[in-house]
From TrEMBL:
<dbReference type="InterPro" id="IPR011701">
    <property type="entry name" value="MFS"/>
</dbReference>
<feature type="domain" description="Major facilitator superfamily (MFS) profile">
    <location>
        <begin position="20"/>
        <end position="421"/>
    </location>
</feature>
<protein>
    <submittedName>
        <fullName>MFS transporter</fullName>
    </submittedName>
</protein>
<keyword id="KW-0812">Transmembrane</keyword>
<dbReference type="Pfam" id="PF07690">
    <property type="entry name" value="MFS_1"/>
</dbReference>
<dbReference type="GO" id="GO:0015112">
    <property type="term" value="F:nitrate transmembrane transporter activity"/>
</dbReference>
<feature type="transmembrane region" description="Helical">
    <location>
        <begin position="150"/>
        <end position="172"/>
    </location>
</feature>
<feature type="transmembrane region" description="Helical">
    <location>
        <begin position="240"/>
        <end position="265"/>
    </location>
</feature>
<feature type="transmembrane region" description="Helical">
    <location>
        <begin position="109"/>
        <end position="129"/>
    </location>
</feature>
<dbReference type="GO" id="GO:0016020">
    <property type="term" value="C:membrane"/>
</dbReference>
<keyword id="KW-0534">Nitrate assimilation</keyword>
<keyword id="KW-0472">Membrane</keyword>
<feature type="transmembrane region" description="Helical">
    <location>
        <begin position="311"/>
        <end position="331"/>
    </location>
</feature>
<feature type="transmembrane region" description="Helical">
    <location>
        <begin position="21"/>
        <end position="44"/>
    </location>
</feature>
<feature type="transmembrane region" description="Helical">
    <location>
        <begin position="271"/>
        <end position="290"/>
    </location>
</feature>
<dbReference type="InterPro" id="IPR020846">
    <property type="entry name" value="MFS_dom"/>
</dbReference>
<dbReference type="GO" id="GO:0042128">
    <property type="term" value="P:nitrate assimilation"/>
</dbReference>
Length: 453
């Protein structure tokens, strides 16, 4: 019988845990690249369709709205069918609207495909589910945050690379009105390719795939209603809804910035499409390390302060995010705005990582439901920010008000409490994982601390 991994061997593909780790962040990267591929090209698309401010706001809302529903569904589907089937299906079905948006001929058609593309934002929930079942308590926060952070990097890379892909296509003699359409086909094709690798090289958990494990009796199944039961159990836990709000305050702000940053830098500061893409992309590039830092710090704090330490860290990070966002909203020069954006972006990504470092400990019997509901909270936050943008006179005013909401939401993190029994159980699981890790290190002739974290 295999066990959850107690360490992360970054350069290894030799175990099911590490294959799942690498392929799940790669799949997440491709999905987020496709999800945000339209955003840096919006200045071009705006001219193509003659879009108004309200229409652009509608498009940004559509891009994240449907993800709320799909995230609520996909979590319990992971409990029922396993992350391997869920991810493969999402990649294949999600590729259709990603490619389809390139063929839109009107605002209404573009809005429809942008709405449908939002479904691939649910990829995050599967990523967090898959790493949660593969890694032990001593490293699960780091594993969750690192996989999510590297996957989130797809959003930042889309901001930077899509204008360059368009420029390369135009240099080959293609008209810009056709070039942006060709550019948007690229992420859809990548998703189809990724679906093959995920199906071929991953398994649902360390012991194997859910279907075979249930057939052999190694995994107890509660039947076809298993996914629904997972959702109901998660929905009845007050801690889930508190983290739903905190995730709306951090990830909701993150995807809102992804969708509006390039256009904001063009309209507010007069930057070129390429310069605005690099400025907006720098926010997403923080995901390369910042989200992982949030999970790593959460694991380290938990060594001394347990679960309450994880919640206190999340509170501090969201307060830092809100203060940074407040400063960003007040900047009147492009250079200072980029600096402020990077500061608040660092706290934002770390808060996202710290949130999902808590998720595996909320309710192990309903992991998919917990991950799905909290993940949906991020999109609710983004949709709320989108409506706030529609109701304010300027983007700066929207960002200022949003910062106040973020700071207020930080209190929710402190309200997440655990029973003495839960603390005791998690402490034992944590210590058992550490002991297992040290035993494995001893067999390899390495000191415990020398093993990759």
């Amino acid at each position: 019988m295999m066990h959850k991994a107690t360490r992360i061997d970054l350069f290894s593909f030799g175990t099911p845990q590490m294959r799942a780790f690498h392929l799940t962040w790669m799949a997440f990267f491709v999905c987020f690249f496709g999800w945000f591929a339209c955003a840096p090209l919006m200045p071009v698309i705006k001219g193509e369709f003659g879009l108004t401010k309200d229409q652009i706001a509608n498009i940004n809302i559509a891009a994240v709205a449907v993800t709320i529903l799909v995230r609520l569904i996909i979590g319990p589907m992971c409990d029922r069918f396993g992350p391997r089937k869920a991810y493969t299906g999402l990649l294949l079905l999600g590729a259709l609207p990603v490619i389809g948006v390139a063929f839109s001929q009107s605002y209404e058609a573009f809005l429809f495909f942008r709405l449908a593309i939002g479904a691939i934002g649910a990829s995050f929930v599967i990523t967090q589910f898959h790493t949660s079942v593969m890694f032990a308590p001593n490293v699960v926060g780091t594993a969750n945050a690192t996989a999510a952070g590297w996957g989130n990097l797809g959003g930042g890379m889309a901001q930077t690379l899509m204008p360059l892909i368009l420029a390369a296509i135009v240099l080959m003699g293609v008209e810009q009105s056709l070039g942006w359409r060709i550019a948007l086909v690229v992420p859809g094709v990548l998703m189809v390719i990724m679906s093959f690798f995920y199906w071929r090289y991953t398994q649902d958990c360390p012991e194997g795939n859910y279907t075979e494990l249930r057939a052999s009796g190694e995994l107890v199944s509660s039947g076809k209603r298993e996914g629904l039961q997972s959702f109901k159990l998660a929905a009845s836990n007050y801690r889930v809804w508190l983290l739903f709000l905190t995730y709306g305050a951090c990830f909701g702000v993150e995807i809102f910035i992804h969708n509006m940053a390039a256009l904001y830098y063009v309209d507010k500061f007069g930057l070129s499409l390429k310069a605005a893409g690099f400025a907006a992309g720098s926010f997403g590039l923080l995901a390369l390390f910042a989200r992982a830092m949030g999970g790593l710090f959460s694991d380290r704090v938990a060594q001394k302060r347990g679960l309450n330490g994880r919640t206190a860290l999340l509170f501090a990070l969201i307060v830092g995010e809100g203060v940074g966002l407040l400063c960003f909203s007040l900047m009147d020069s492009a250079a200072l705005a980029v600096v402020a954006m990077l500061v608040f972006g660092l706290f934002t990504h770390m808060a996202c990582g710290a949130t999902y470092a808590l998720v595996p400990f909320i309710d192990r019997k309903a992991l998919g439901g917990v991950a799905g509901i909290i993940g949906a909270g991020g999109n609710v936050g983004a949709v709320a920010a989108g409506f706030l943008m529609k109701g304010t006179a300027t983007a700066q005013e929207c960002l200022f008000i949003l910062s106040i909401f973020v700071i207020s939401t930080a209190v929710c993190a402190l309200l997440v409490r655990f029973s003495a029994e839960a603390h005791s159980n998690e402490r034992k699981a944590f210590e058992d994982a550490q002991a297992q890790r040290e035993a494995e290190a001893g067999k390899q002739g390495l000191p415990g601390e020398a093993v990759a974290a």
